[in-house]
Amino acid sequence: MATAFEKAGSLAPIQRGAGGAALREAAREVFAERGYHGASIRDIAKRAGLSLSALYYWYASKQELFAALLEDSVQDYFETCDAALREAADTPQDRLRVLVQATVDYRVRRRLESIIATREILNLEPAQANRLVELRRAATDLFRDVIADGIRQGVFDCEHPDDSRRSLEAACNAIADWYDPAGEITADQLADRYADIALRLVGYTRNVQ
Amino acid sequence: MATAFEKAGSLAPIQRGAGGAALREAAREVFAERGYHGASIRDIAKRAGLSLSALYYWYASKQELFAALLEDSVQDYFETCDAALREAADTPQDRLRVLVQATVDYRVRRRLESIIATREILNLEPAQANRLVELRRAATDLFRDVIADGIRQGVFDCEHPDDSRRSLEAACNAIADWYDPAGEITADQLADRYADIALRLVGYTRNVQ
Amino acid sequence: MATAFEKAGSLAPIQRGAGGAALREAAREVFAERGYHGASIRDIAKRAGLSLSALYYWYASKQELFAALLEDSVQDYFETCDAALREAADTPQDRLRVLVQATVDYRVRRRLESIIATREILNLEPAQANRLVELRRAATDLFRDVIADGIRQGVFDCEHPDDSRRSLEAACNAIADWYDPAGEITADQLADRYADIALRLVGYTRNVQ
Amino acid sequence: MATAFEKAGSLAPIQRGAGGAALREAAREVFAERGYHGASIRDIAKRAGLSLSALYYWYASKQELFAALLEDSVQDYFETCDAALREAADTPQDRLRVLVQATVDYRVRRRLESIIATREILNLEPAQANRLVELRRAATDLFRDVIADGIRQGVFDCEHPDDSRRSLEAACNAIADWYDPAGEITADQLADRYADIALRLVGYTRNVQ
DNA sequence: AATGAATGAGCGTTCATTCAT
DNA sequence: TATGAATGAACGCTCATTCAT
Hints:
The structure is a homotetramer. Chain A is mainly alpha-helical. Helices cover about 75% and strands about 0% of the residues of chain A. In chain A, α2 (about 20-40) packs parallel to α7 (about 110-120), α5 (about 60-85) packs parallel to α8 and α7 packs across α9.
């Protein structure tokens, strides 16, 4: 059973050598709360229970810490989508369904990083930003391809597929903004609902009506 | 009958004048490009072609300039929605349609403020933030009410109306992020497409199929 | 008559608008005492009787303040030499004599800058450093040319003119390190003595023996 | 008879060892390149191929490493001068000649330390600085005494012996700034030339003309 | 004899803001 | 209506140094 002290979590004294992980965790929270420019490295270090200079032992700069966070998270998203697709049945409707489920899962599981990545990617320095924009575009392409397949096969009815896709991605992104992990809706339930929403958006008619 | 706009109340009219307008215009751009904390009032004053001190003649602080921008923009949104609703036919499907069209129109017309309001509202000081969150909730209520009406009247088929509404609002918000005013899609075309998307999201079947 | 308060000089409150001059004066002293890296801009601002941020109103950076100091001083030296040569009689011995006198005058008159320029020029950023090295080389060329003339005309007897020149310049440079402006030797006396030293170094025999 | 070196006393011998030697070598270079304050012990440790902490095994502080370097070098200078004087003929002109040759030899052989000692002695803490200033004064006395002897014996003709001495020392010091060990002039050649310069400076006429 | 991890003080710089005119 | 000059607080970061192993 967690003691009050353990619940305080990030305020507990950090074990020697565990500074890097504590900093990443603190950075996640502070960047999500205050944004890149609003977050000071003093805040982050303090929340991690470390001195300011310890941050520079683990990361070369605020920017590098920030980039490590996003890189890790976006990579995770892409791999989550990829894995989901590999196990999906080979119909567009099922592939779209698992893609959305993977996305919702990711938005809930890595809620803070999602918020950061959506809101703050412009604050990455060009080199890193390009890498992540590339990865993000690859994820977008997964959606685009599945939708295009569905239309080609006649199972999706959708005059402006890009609008549907953009709406769908925006809807999924927004989950991170309002979802309450302590609330009553489980991630799985939410994933199912958003999969239904997705099929509506692309005009898949058979199992919705 | 009091409109949603009137219910939300109003502030003293924003001070107008050559310098003030130049500052608001510059602030719009700089806040949108770099975010609240990333934007410095030196940048804003310079872009407005004014001295740093002049900014303090027009606005008491960075925060007030920021708030004025958002306030102005959110009021505009309400007026737009209100006007649209007043002229709409009295069916849920038509009311939802004009609501979405008004929203899209606003997102395109006030693109930069939209981006700012979506991304940076956390940087408002509590008093102002509460006002705007209130206004925003009022906007959300317009959608909620219309959707609830449609369901009650049996013209919308929608198991989780809150999810549909949130998806719809997120989709509309996102337009500001990708829409290119110099591109080929006109705001009216886009508004129509998103009205269709809205009706799909709420399960309005008659004039879509 | 100077009051005790006026003597304290740099500690007196600075008149509004006079910050730039006070900063240059303070920088002169602190850079000379502690070197470029040893001098902190907080020290400089404090000695100038200004806040740290005021320094940044007048100069864009520590480096720029430093460069302004050296630029001004080296320029002064070059002009001093040039002016002296224009009024000198046209014999090598007289030209060398006024050149040395001008140099001694400069080393005494701008003692602190001399120390800084000699010791710290490597701490200038390349662009500025190149400019100053160029100016310095021009001054060195004045010496080189005069000595070469004297040898060609047979009035100087000097097997290794570059060694003589380097020794002479080093001797003059060093004056800034030990000269006490409050001591008994006047700058003019010193200039005469060093002119004699110069003529010995180049082997000018007629009026020395 | 106690030599100047013995009079100045000596410190405990510097600790020797692989790591320590590598550190001193690295420190020599880095201090010479960037000055005391501009050199970081991280740079020094890295150039020595050791960890930062290892530096603290060998030296108690940056200051101690710095002092060890200068101490070592100045002691070397004294031994060089002493040895040279012991083998010199007992005339002022020969004693001055070997003193200058020893000095030039030292400036060339210990070029980097020479630069450091000349430029950075102010950065020594008082205790150490006093010791070295004392040693330096002892060196100056060697010159002063020889010159005074020469004047007393009538072989030097020199109205302001202190100016001659200061010029001579400055000229020798400066060698470290421009001498190129890979160039064409050997240290011995240079030593001869500077010995001639010295005799000119003090007005020794017989074997120069 | 050496290391990886951490610290507190201070660095140069920028920030939003205010003062005097 | 504006400006030029100044401020105190905070920023991201580096410093010499120490601790635990």
